[in-house]
Design brief:
single chain, mainly alpha, elongated
Length: 273
Amino acid sequence: MSVVPAEALPDGALAAKEAAPEAAELGPRARLWPSLAAVYRAQLSRARVARIPLLFVATFQSVGIMILMRGVVDGGGEARSVVAGSAVLVVAFVALNLLAQYFGQLRASGGLDHYATLPVPPAAVVLGAAGAYASFTVPGTLVTAVFGCVLFGLPMAHLWILIAVIPLAGAALAGLGAALGLLAPRPELATLLGQLGMSAALLLGVLPPERMPEVVRLARDLLPSTYGVEALARTFGPRPDWARVLGDLAVCGVVGVLSLAVATWAYRRAAVR
């Protein structure tokens, strides 16, 4: 290779060399909240077509369970558990079951490669998808809670607590569902795990804990949705213990943060493979 001195270059070439721009700097990294909002809107728009079937199936399932339990449970604390568990079951059906299936199919079809090419933080992808799916649960949860209160004769004065129960329980269950879908090696296994998680939320959340064996109660305490169910059930009493309600919501929120963090880690792990 020969080296040509600068004096030997033509004047035009030398001028072009001096006028050549330096390498362009990379743009700033995308911020979390704008990226989260963009992913949320995209996911909400994509799933909008399936909104009515999702709401109908999730709500009809919970309402049917309460009607069946009406022949077994008359009232009191057991009725509160049935209504609260059925309302939170709507959240579990969408946030846990369907989100596990979605991320399992996304990983199997190579859809994670698309998100990996976007200047979007991994947390924004997980949180945006989880928030969009959890948003579908709001109308169904409200309808289920109101119907249950009418069916079992429970007061509806404190149903405003659903403003806190739905997002906190939804975050905990959505993080768990996303983690199951991203960690499952096959989409069929992700679907199975999502179905098992929803079944656990059904059996451990809707059935009154007073009739469960001690071992089953311990398993119930490990389920993230349990604390959302307990918080809602306590508000049906004549004198709600608001300190315990806030404690249950705090535990639900901590579990939600941890489960979403695990889901974000699982997304990074699956995206680089």
